[in-house]
Amino acid sequence: MEEEVSLHYLVASVQLQYGLYSAFMGCFVYFIFGTSKDITVGPTAILSLLVATYDDPIKPGSDYNDPKLAIILAFMCGVIQFVMGVLHLGSLTGFISTPVISGFTSASAITIAAGQAKHLLGLSFSSDTFFESLVGIFVHIRKTNGWDLLMGLSSMVVLLLLQKIQRDSSLWMSHHTEDTPGYLKVVRKSLWFLGTARNAVIVGCTALLVWSLDTAGYAGKISTNGNVTEGIPTPSVPDFADFHFLTIIRELNVGLIIVPLIAYLEAIAIGKAFARKNGYRVEPNQEIIALGLCNIAGSFFSSYPVTGSFSRTAINSQSGVKTPAGGVVTGILVLLSLQFLTPLFQFIPKAALAAVIITAVLKMFNYKMFVKLWQVSKLDLIPLTVTFVASLFLPVQYGTIIGVVVDLIILLYPIARPEIKAVSPSNAILKQEDNLFLPSDRSSPLVQIESCPVLVVQVDRSVRYPSAENLVEKLNNIRESKVYYQQHVIFDFSRVCEIDYTAVESLSDAIADFAKAGVKLYFVHVKLYIHDMLHRANIPGLEIFPSVQEAMQSLSGSGE
Amino acid sequence: MEEEVSLHYLVASVQLQYGLYSAFMGCFVYFIFGTSKDITVGPTAILSLLVATYDDPIKPGSDYNDPKLAIILAFMCGVIQFVMGVLHLGSLTGFISTPVISGFTSASAITIAAGQAKHLLGLSFSSDTFFESLVGIFVHIRKTNGWDLLMGLSSMVVLLLLQKIQRDSSLWMSHHTEDTPGYLKVVRKSLWFLGTARNAVIVGCTALLVWSLDTAGYAGKISTNGNVTEGIPTPSVPDFADFHFLTIIRELNVGLIIVPLIAYLEAIAIGKAFARKNGYRVEPNQEIIALGLCNIAGSFFSSYPVTGSFSRTAINSQSGVKTPAGGVVTGILVLLSLQFLTPLFQFIPKAALAAVIITAVLKMFNYKMFVKLWQVSKLDLIPLTVTFVASLFLPVQYGTIIGVVVDLIILLYPIARPEIKAVSPSNAILKQEDNLFLPSDRSSPLVQIESCPVLVVQVDRSVRYPSAENLVEKLNNIRESKVYYQQHVIFDFSRVCEIDYTAVESLSDAIADFAKAGVKLYFVHVKLYIHDMLHRANIPGLEIFPSVQEAMQSLSGSGE
């Protein structure tokens, strides 16, 4: 399957060998540090797409992009993953929900497919988003190269046929019994192998065809990948000297968060799926450390960011690979290809590669998720749709960030907008079972209470910074509203379990606002450590009472 | 005060007139749409610092930066603020807590001061962060220009003196009585005016000095601002044609979120402070719409992003300006300066401007916040310190983003890591007061219960996407732990009020994991709409029962 490894890299428009450079170190390092028995590490379509936006052409007008920044990204991505693993921060990926992942994946699939469509047509322009590719194709459509189009379309038809053959023969093989004739078994196994190796078959056959055309005098008719550097890359430190540290931060920006997280998400999703199937468990923190080491080690061999690849892992698993050393075999095969096969790569037609990539990625477009969310949870359609649409018009990493933010807003809205309930004091006291007391030395406090213009407010959750300003706003609204005008307010803190400095400051503002209006704001049922915190903050005019009754006692006393 | 307006713009190393370009449209537009009676809109030191990172030199080696991208940022910032206002999203700023704001402001202050220190020394190099400025000064210190240093230091001494005079005279004036002699009142009022106008005084006097030195044959000894374009800018559409839309997104990236939010935060903080002092209220959504319109309108007059300026607002207020039309007067003064005073600007020494900026911004460094948080809320020291340190080593907008993310992690940690409690069924039933029932037609269900290997788990809050994976992990841990091995599990959903698709998927995974291990996972006390959602998701093997008893009835039935 070593050819497949190189294919994805057309997405990033770098020279073909970088795909192979990315495909061996990860296999060796993962074998040592990984916890999944099935994962094969290497470049993936989605990572290629993410990395593609950080590639600039080597020089203006060049067909190939400069891989330096992408290799630095691999190194940085590795360091960030390693640190995340050590700090047990892998669960941060929990903040990327299934709808966001699905929207991102589907948008990536059609962005990659649209980006490859130009190679099917033999066109050449640069595009980072689905929208740009679409516009580019419309603008350049008259320059379509008939040879490339023919090559691309026929490759695609053959690929789809081989895919069907693989699926069918796999089905037949599952129905084999002891009575099945031996020749039939051999034929079906061969068909299955042909179908499984379809990408390699297409790439090999079309390269052969181009070579034949070349020798027959039709050189240059079909666009090919051109010069490929031969041999295994010599290890070298990533090219940090060419970039200022801040330039790296500024150029890579959100990529420094998105690439490590998405890479980890891909790997852990595959790891868990196969672990579930084969009855073992993966250790998430060890996985992200292993991936980090793969990326760091890889960056010394000119590797792009890598992660667990679903297609290669699946093929390994279907091919009957039952040992984690399968990755090592893959790595060795890649090294052998680099050493011996690279001269042949120059004959690989771009349109055939594009056909391989398109048929591979279109499976990632998950339209069913839209239907499913419509049926199950319509609110989740918002992050899905936002992520999907934003990722079509912007580079997918920005689309994902926007999706995550929208999702967080939906999650945090109730925290940022707490419900405030205003009740009459007698109701508040009756509900406060735990704290209810009517001391005998006070003559019917309830009578005093009713004569006193007081309002009790309660908040439905803890007071933290996102809701702090909103709380002051609501308290002032209550104070200024006609219904409650000039009533003193008792703030019942019994449901407030947590508080932070921003909230303390806002409460201090509220007390000042109330004081200015000549209205009192008292606090009751304050938990001990919140009580301490409020006192340490030295808020002028702060008054805390154990219960509503005592606060009212004080109010009616001051009123007299 | 029109000079002050232009000063801040040295921070961004653009030609001086851009400061003035930014200072008039906002005043007029805010007068029409704003709700604060005090705010004066214009460029501020913090916004200048934020914008500075988006300026590239006009050409390599040029002293001035190209303002095009900054003007586009003003336009985009305006559009984003306007949309936020219309969608009532102003409360999003609640997610930037006081410790983060404080860390950001303090770091900005010393970043700006360090950036200006090079002008005090007469050095010339580019730096975006505090760290870069520091390194630059060490590297270039031998090239210090004695004239500039003398000019800068003496300006600073005079400024500090004038600042003290202003403070003292202000104090004396507050103690004036009817008996105070008239001449004393006049002297003190004059001193107060001199102190308040200290920036203009310094700029004016030093420019005069430079002009005298020039005519005396010492031209060029002191670094000045050089050529300034005269006149009021002609309105023009921001230079979008020079940039691809995606280039704008990629270049401005986090600036597109941070600049509109910080600008709004500055304005609303000032607006609220003065509203509190003068007894009125500002309408946050209208404020952000007004700011958005100021920025959009400004960008057509080559303005940089603008917002409410604390120093100018404070001076206006102290000077006795009592009408919102004060801003209009400021705007007209700026236009007059542009028309008539610009020829004089070329004599303003850079070192004097730097001294003005440094004395102004150092007040923003709030070391007391570290002490305060140490006393009141030590957990809040984490976002403060992270934001502060990150903002010194990275451009401040990245530091702020990092601070916000760290703060969110602290806020969301309990949501992402829910507590799961495993209890024995009898305990679970006894605690479930609301749902407790012991039907008479069943013979002592509690006896059956004890004989059945069952465990009840409860989760302490809603099941949402950040905690979904963690929940499955914990359920599987319980299932696999030696203590509970091979016990069926009943998941008590009574405290789960919200659920989303990611959580539904995770529960489905958990059911599959349990089924594979031959252990049952039942759900009880599921709220009606969550019940509906789980059913619509078609989870294979999902079993929901009204209560623990009925789930156990079914388990013991299947066990027999």
TrEMBL record, chains A, B:
Keyword check for Membrane: yes
STAS domain: residues covered: 454-555
Keyword Membrane: yes
Family matches, as InterPro entries: SLC26A/SulP_dom, SLC26A/SulP_fam, STAS_dom, STAS_dom_sf
Membrane topology, as annotated: Multi-pass membrane protein
Recorded GO CC terms: membrane
GO biological process: transmembrane transport
Keywords: Membrane, Transmembrane, Transmembrane helix
Transmembrane segments: 7-33, 39-57, 69-89, 191-213, 254-275, 287-305, 325-345, 352-370, 382-413
A Pfam family that the UniProt record links to this protein: Sulfate_transp
Classification via PANTHER family: SULFATE TRANSPORTER
Protein name: Sodium-independent sulfate anion transporter
Organism: Holothuria leucospilota (Black long sea cucumber)
